[in-house]
Design goal:
Elements: E1 2-6, E2 13-17, E3 27-37, H1 39-45, E4 55-56, E5 61-68, E6 82-85, H2 95-98, H3 106-115, E7 125-126, E8 132-135, E9 144-148, E10 152-154, H4 170-182, E11 189-193, H5 197-208, E12 213-218, H6 221-229, E13 234-237, H7 243-250, E14 256-261, H8 266-275, E15 276-284, H9 298-303, E16 307-308, H10 316-328, E17 338-342, H11 347-355, E18 362-366
Length: about 375
Amino acid sequence: MKASVLRDVKKGLQVEEIRTPRPRTGEVLVKVRACGMCHSDLHVIHGDIAFPLPAVLGHEVSGEIVEVGPGNEHTGLEVGQNVSGAFLMPCGQCSACSEGRDDLCGPFFDMNRLKGQLYDGQTRLFGLDGEEIAQYSMGALAEYCVIPSTSVAPIPDNVDPVAAAIIGCAVLTAYGAVRRGADVRHGESVAVVATGGVGSNIIQISRAFGAKHVIAIDVADDKLEAARALGATHTINSTKEDVREKVFEYTGGRGVDVAFEALGRPETWQSALAALKDGGRMVPIGLGAGVQTADVEINRTVRRSQSIIGSYGARTRHDLPATIDLAAHGIINYKDIVSQHYSLENVAEGYDLLAQGKILGRAVVDMSL
């Protein structure tokens, strides 16, 4: 099969022929229809986060199941189903998974995110000569990928099979932040700092959960215009306006109940913290490049009883079907968030534009191109 392989951060992604993978126990083989392009991939592509090379990236995917491995008798997964695959792939066996905390799955972090392996300690990707190739999540920048059955869910016929790729990260991460991290309640006020693929979905899901004010904060006017179309009640360009001043103006001098940070940079952390009311919750979602830190004003955080609640992904086995249901019932507009389509051969161009902040919403690799 063809795959976009990262061998050297100086050379970037290059399309190669590698072996088509095969599923093992508790896994399925998916013929990729589309793969979303996420900032988290950029950290590996640029060498800011250590990951074994060579590797195949791509961690939000849609496609068709073409082979089902053993041990799937009670999963309901069948050849021919269209599915969405989630980036956070719980092993289903560790203590965190046993407690329903898929987002804290130890083997996922220790084996997949550090070593590029699945849960038998091996990758499913190999070069034509047998060379091992690490996989970042399922490694979906390829014509086929193997995914643990814990991490896929069927998509109904009324869900767009290409745009459905973004459900497994951009939508799932947003849902986890709103539902699990912040537990947004009806009538609360929300700020969303950075309105890309994840932030765009936080806006929509917050409105669906009954947020009264949803204030979108970004540095690009075109992204803020798109945020309004998705349900933001107010927008702030942080390069032109004082974030704290404008947020407090829009909320009657109180600040927001919840501020989401969706980029992973010190300056966006500062914007999110500046927006909070007394007793408010700041929910960081974005991953930083390498080891980054952000300043927190200790006395203000303590005296004003503010909380910082990290949120990584969601509880895949429960929340992936829930996000698909939101898409199927038109509660979220996932299709318009997908603004650009790239072929596998042109994927490096898309990531370059993403790094420059020039992708509105989310771009996808469309295998039909």
